[in-house]
Design a protein that fits this description.
The protein has 284 residues and is mostly helical. Helices cover 63% and strands 3% of the residues. The chain has a two-stranded antiparallel sheet with strand order 1-2. A hairpin with a 2-residue loop joins β1 (22-25) and β2 (28-31). α7 (164-177) packs across α9. Residues 1-10 have low confidence and may be disordered. InterPro entries: FAX/IsoI-like (IPR026928), Glutathione-S-Trfase_C_sf (IPR036282), Glutathione_S-Trfase (IPR040079), Metaxin_GST (IPR033468), Mito_Protein_Transport_Metaxin (IPR050931), Thioredoxin-like_fold (IPR012336). Belongs to the FAX family. This is Failed axon connections protein.
C-alpha cells in the first residue's frame, strides 16, 4: 500500500508490465508489491524488517507467499463469481473512477463481462477455480485462521512495530473487511466473527498509515497528502459561449456611449435636413 510520488496527473490502470499494483517514483515505474517494497527500502534506506531475525524473515516470507499465491486467489474467485457484488460492496462509481461520461449502465456491463469472463479463466488456470464455492471459502478461512493464530494478542506480527508482513496482510485483508456490510460476503463475516484480532490489525494499520483514508476513498486521489496546484483557468465551448452572451448584454463603456450618441445625433440631423429639403421642393 504505497503512494505515488512525483507523477503526472493522468491516471494509469496498469504498469508497463501489465501488473497492479505499481508506483511511479520520479518518472520510473516499479511494478509488483514485493519489488516495490524492496526498491523503496533500498532507495530511502528504510528496511521494515531490519530488526527481524533470520528465522522471522523466513516465516514472513512463507506467510507472504501464502497470501499472494493462495488467499489472494480466493478473493479473486469471489470477485469473478459475483461482479455485481463487487460494484456494490466497494461502492464503485465507474464514471468517477475512469473519468468518463459514458453511462454507468454501459460501464457496469463491460466491467462485469470482463471480470466475469476473463477473470474466471485466470482463476481456473491458477487451479483454485475448479473447486466448489464451499471448498474455496474453506480455503480462505484456513488462511485467515493461520494469520490470526500467528498474530495472537500482539499489536503486530513480530511485536510492537509493523513489518513487511503487516503491510502485506493489511493490503489484502482491507479488501475483505471494508466491503459494505449490506453485501453478503462469507469470508468477511468469518474474519469479523472468528478473527477479531485481524480486524484490529487492519484498523491499526489504517489509522497509522492512512489518516486521509476517507478522502482517498471518496476522491480516488492517491496523493491527497500533497498540496494541490492551482487549477488552470480553461473554458470549454459552453463556457465561452456563455461569456460571449453575457458580454453582449453588458452596458457599453462611457467612450462607446459617446460614440453611439454622436452617431444617433448625426442620423437625426440628416433626417431633419431631408424633411426641410422636401418642404422646399413642395413650395416651389
Amino acid at each position: 500500500m504505497m503512494k505515488k510520488n512525483n507523477v503526472d496527473h493522468k491516471l494509469k490502470y496498469r504498469s508497463k508490465k501489465g501488473q497492479l499494483p505499481f508506483v511511479e517514483l520520479n518518472g520510473e515505474e516499479i511494478a509488483d508489491s514485493v519489488i516495490i517494497i524492496k526498491e523503496l527500502a533500498a532507495r530511502f534506506n528504510h528496511d521494515l524488517d531490519a530488526a527481524l531475525t533470520a528465522e522471522q524473515r523466513n516465516v514472513a516470507h512463507a506467510m507472504i507467499s501464502m497470501i499472494d499465491n493462495h488467499l489472494a486467489w480466493v478473493v479473486m474467485w469471489w470477485r469473478t463469481k459475483y461482479p455485481d457484488q463487487v460494484l456494490k460492496g466497494y461502492k464503485v462509481n465507474l464514471q468517477h473512477a475512469l473519468g468518463t461520461r459514458i453511462p454507468n449502465g454501459i460501464l457496469n456491463f463491460c466491467f462485469k463481462f470482463a471480470l466475469g469472463r476473463k477473470g474466471s479463466k485466470k482463476v481456473k488456470a491458477q487451479g483454485i477455480g475448479v473447486h466448489s464455492p464451499e471448498e474455496i471459502n474453506a480455503f480462505g478461512q484456513s488462511d485467515l485462521k493461520v494469520l490470526s493464530d500467528m498474530l495472537a494478542d500482539k499489536p503486530f506480527f513480530f511485536g510492537d512495530e509493523p513489518t513487511t508482513l503487516d503491510v502485506v496482510v493489511f493490503a489484502h485483508l482491507a479488501q475483505i473487511y471494508f466491503i459494505d456490510k449490506e453485501v453478503a460476503y462469507p469470508l468477511r463475516d468469518y474474519m469479523t466473527e472468528s478473527c477479531p484480532n485481524l480486524v484490529g490489525l487492519v484498523n491499526r494499520m489504517k489509522d497509522r498509515c492512512f489518516s486521509d483514508w476517507d478522502e482517498i476513498c471518496t476522491n480516488l486521489d492517491l496523493n491527497s497528502h500533497l498540496p494541490k496546484p492551482e487549477p488552470e483557468q480553461q473554458k470549454d465551448n459552453k463556457e465561452a459561449a456563455k461569456d460571449e452572451k453575457e458580454a453582449e448584454g453588458k452596458e457599453l463603456e462611457p467612450d462607446d456611449k459617446d460614440i453611439e450618441k454622436e452617431k444617433a445625433d448625426d442620423k437625426e440631423k440628416a433626417k431633419e435636413k431631408d424633411v426641410e429639403e422636401n418642404k422646399e421642393k413642395e413650395t416651389k
